[in-house]
Amino acid sequence: MSRRVSMFFALALGLGIAGAAAAHHPPLMERCVILSFTGQVEQIEWRMPHVELFIRADDGVSHRLIWRSFHQLAWVDIDRDTLRIGDQVVFTATTQRNDVLERPMLLSNIRRISDGWEWSQEPQGC
Description:
Layout: H1 2-24, E1 29-45, E2 52-57, E3 62-66, H2 70-75, E4 88-96, E5 105-112, E6 118-120
Parallel strand pairs: 3-5
Antiparallel strand pairs: 1-2, 1-4, 2-3, 4-5, 5-6
């Protein structure tokens, strides 16, 4: 009986973790559709579960970009002083289906124009 109970709890835990991951990683991402823009950093929000960047592209459109968690960024020496409001950047991101310019995008590359600093990862799931 205890083996059944253990298996039940293991299954429940696994489903709970999968559900939590799906809650903020929607399947609606077009992970192989990659867009690239040049613009200026308007805002940076260091919060859980992910850091978010708001960048106004040169065409005047603002984009909300989902980055990594601040813990993951700290592992590669990125902190609150790495990017600043007003930095000119080139960024590449994958987007969600429909309403491309209004929904958040997943950041895959960002390069600061002034000094060439860059962060990059392969587009997820592509």
